């Protein structure tokens, strides 16, 4: 057993807690500052010395954002595109993962390698041909353009995540369906899908997050204000009123809410997706 | 009859996986592999995208890029930004993981801190950029604190002076990205068998010896694969730099992604931008091959 409560040991424990506090300041202060600034008036944001807590607590920044239909539209667009892509991705990835997990076929290994490597394709490389395609098919500045292009980078992750999950499920279950004369399609929907809900949730969460955060394609493939998503909306806000920091912070808080809520409610699934790239 | 049925069933089993995979393959083929071929083709054309019948340009656009000092500056900035980010992501992630894993802190506190230390991960790059712009404003809170402590004598324009801008964006990215390492290493730490440490205790090993001879070697596979992925992803960072500095001032934070973006959508030189995009693709592919090899060797 380790000896405890010697003076040296206590010193180490105290030092560790001091370091933990410093780490906490590093990790959380910027977030705290965003939150507290969103409740300040714009003049108070640059008060000297800075006020740690809002001196005159105000919701004016939130009122300005939530009362503006243009900004609400950014939120609608983000939710709509991310939601649509998530549904499509999960469906398509589920089928692919089922194929990978339950069948042996020619080219399986190389297909798997291709899917793993597509995760690292730089978005900027795809952006130029996407722009060309989107313009020539007349879908520039539409939801379709965003949904199709987002699918490309959500699918590989989703397939890997779902395959990983399906591989953990015992095969006897779907084989029982086959013995009863059912097709693999029946087995998928009757047996696999109901018990794959945790995997489906993890995949959905991660897909939603990827779409919610997307910036480059939304910036380039849309143009009108009514098609813009939240990240682009924040950037626009910055150009228009360079000094309305409280509104920018309020919009940032509102734009972070979905991810924060998902994280709090479904931490396990969230982390499963976030670390998926590294634990294949 | 039964034989027929059985062979029918066999055929179905043989075709089924391709059917299940077909939607994914269609999307990946049409929207990923085809565009990759297209961008390579663009890079050899004059006025790609803009003209219907572009003429063949040979290696002209690659030549133009390699002759452009801004390209080389961007490459250097990308390397600096990426290497510093990965090194500090790893160091901070490791220190935080070790601290959180220590049995000297109480479990409730550990759980709270674990959630709070992950915070930077939950924010979109654009929001992170906006937060750091506010923090690092000349009249902002960071300058105010640093001046009160006496570290700096006068207000520093972190993002708008060429001497500090690259360091400032790198710092913001370091802050944004360490949680991936932290979470992965924390999971790795919990997977190291306890008897390793018990055996070391019996031999009278010191804490730092256990760290060097047990913990770090055990975590090495995670460290290597996350570093590679982090390197590939950090190289591609766009929004953080676009929103904080836009590549400026005077190209001092221009990286390959902003350089390419500007060529394409500010100068509308899509051919040259394609050449630059192909260069980025080749670097990424090289690193990816390395990564896949490493994963397979494991």
From TrEMBL, chain A:
Q: Does the keyword Membrane apply?
A: yes
Q: Where is the ABC transmembrane type-1 domain?
A: 75-266
Instruction: List the keywords (alphabetical).
Output: Cell membrane, Membrane, Transmembrane, Transmembrane helix, Transport
One BP term from GO:
transmembrane transport
State the family named in the UniProt similarity comment for this chain: Belongs to the binding-protein-dependent transport system permease family.
Tell me which SUPFAM superfamilies the record gives: MetI-like (SSF161098)
UniProt key word Coiled coil: no
UniProt cross-references to PANTHER family, sorted A to Z:
INNER MEMBRANE ABC TRANSPORTER PERMEASE PROTEIN YCJP, MALTOSE TRANSPORT SYSTEM PERMEASE-RELATED
Q: Name one Pfam family in it.
A: BPD_transp_1
Any stretches that span the bilayer, and where are they?
12-33, 79-100, 121-140, 146-166, 187-209, 248-266
Membrane topology classification:
Multi-pass membrane protein
Annotated Gene Ontology cellular component terms = plasma membrane
Q: What is this protein called?
A: Carbohydrate ABC transporter permease
From TrEMBL, chain B:
Instruction: Write down the membrane topology.
Output: Multi-pass membrane protein
Q: Name one GO cellular component term.
A: plasma membrane
Write the record's keywords in alphabetical order, separated by commas. Cell membrane, Membrane, Transmembrane, Transmembrane helix, Transport
Task: Output one GO BP term.
Answer: transmembrane transport
For this protein, the record's CDD domains field holds: TM_PBP2
Q: Which Gene3D superfamilies match?
A: MetI-like
Q: Does the keyword Transport apply?
A: yes
Q: Where in the cell is it found?
A: Cell membrane
The membrane-spanning stretches of this chain are 20-44, 79-100, 112-135, 165-190, 211-233, 273-292
Q: Which positions fall inside the ABC transmembrane type-1 domain?
A: 75-291
> Does the entry feature the keyword Transmembrane helix, yes or no?
yes
What the record says about family reads: Belongs to the binding-protein-dependent transport system permease family.
Name of the protein this chain belongs to: Binding-protein-dependent transport systems inner membrane component
